[in-house]
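Incident log, structure service

09:12 report received: a user says their structure output differs between two submissions of the same chain.
09:20 pulled the input from the user's history:
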Amino acid sequence: MDSYQVDPAGTTLTLVVVARPDSTARAEVTTQDSDRVVVKVRVREPVGSGTDLGQHYPVTVTLKEPLGKRPVVTDYGQEIPTAPPTPNP
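09:34 re-ran on a clean worker, output below:
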């Protein structure tokens, strides 16, 4: 898991998953309370021992309430950083 971005309403997170080319990624919110949001992300990578560089795969999840100041963590307890803002041209 690389990072995440949150939409202006605060209820949609786009998680940036880094994996080998031709992988598939999925995510779900497993817990959301007043302290934090926990997401479970799973990646299926192609069979083989390729040494390809990772690609970014955006995966979207929806929250019941706006994120606010709550941290987003993986189901392994690792905090996920927010992605830097996308520059305007």
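09:41 both user submissions now match this output. Likely a transient worker issue. Closing.
09:42 reviewer note: The chain has a mean pLDDT of 90. Residues 3-74 form one domain.
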